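QA checklist item 7 of 12: single-chain prediction sanity check.
[x] sequence parsed
[x] length recorded as 186
[x] structure emitted
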Amino acid sequence: MQVLKRAPSGWPALVLNADFRPLSYYPLSLWPWQESVKAVFLDRVDVVSTYDQKVHSPTFEMALPSVIALKQYVVQDRPPVFTRFNLFLRDRFSCQYCGSGDDLTFDHVLPRSRGGRTTWENIVTACSPCNLTKGGRTPREAGMHPARMPTRPNMYELQDHGRRFPPNHLHESWLDYLYWDIELEA
């Protein structure tokens, strides 16, 4: 991962909750500069840090925010939506049968042909070869058991898993609010 001294492309702002923690780690909670400036004018956020870049109008000048914090706390304890992305995040982007991170899809532990439903508790991340090998069989019949049994995650688990996948680049002004083990680069 690279830490940038110059602003990332598009001048995004890191969005923090009112408690100064990121709204999301994966994907990282970033707003385009236009949204962050709008939120400042609507008095919905406080500017915590700025870039050197400024926006101008005939009567106004403002440094672009690099870090903003919401004024109203957003509760993060709602149940996560069942999506392919959230499923992969729950399973740490690895096949639950062989551990591969390539060619990922999802597998019904109890096959749909046998009444298995598409729910958190019956779906695991699987690579295509393992999914094809298992086919319409149960784990016992196929001799393939998931590394972790599927469960419904909560938002805190998904956020924790997201911390394991830092983006390729971060702006130096964001570092005090993000909690990854990173090596600083120019």
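[x] summary fact logged: The beta strands are 2-4, 13-16, 30-31, 45-56, 61-70, 104-108, 123-127, 169-171.
[ ] second reviewer sign-off
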